[in-house]
Design goal:
The protein is of the alpha+beta class. Helix content is about 20%, strand content about 5%. It has two helices and four strands. The strands form two sheets. A two-stranded antiparallel ribbon has the order 1-4. The protein has a two-stranded antiparallel ribbon with strand order 2-3. It starts with 8 loop residues before the first helix and ends in a 13-residue tail after the last helix. The relative contact order is 0.26.
């Protein structure tokens, strides 16, 4: 079994302090989606603006990062605004660090134990 990294009191206190008055961890939003507005057009789009992006036209609800939308209408007039959000991966990571401080796992070797 592999050991978990040890956490110091200072590291743990900094993590708790980072909660602040809000009582939750937040991080900058890194992905966006277009709101679902119904099925997209059945007419094929013949332009090439979306060929090198991670997002299609305004009816595409796939996630995309900032700066990856093509500069064509309607995206030109509707840029994504980065917000601070509660992110589940940030929460899980921080909770894992807190649990590791409270109950660290030490490695052991036991011939009867199979990894």
């Amino acid at each position: 079994m592999k050991a978990t990294a040890t956490r110091t009191v200072a590291q743990t206190q900094q993590l708790i302090t980072s909660l602040g008055d809000k009582r939750y961890w937040s991080s900058s939003q890194s992905n966006f989606t277009n709101s679902y507005t119904g099925d997209g057009s059945s007419a094929p789009y013949l332009g090439k603006e979306y060929m090198s992006t991670n997002v299609g036209d305004i009816s595409d609800t796939s996630p995309y990062g900032t700066g990856t939308r093509p500069a064509v209408e309607p995206h030109v007039s509707n840029p994504p605004v980065a917000e601070t959000v509660i992110n589940s991966s940030t929460f899980v990571s921080n909770m894992a660090n807190l649990v590791t401080f409270i109950a660290p796992v030490t490695s052991f070797t036991d011939p009867a134990y199979k990894n």
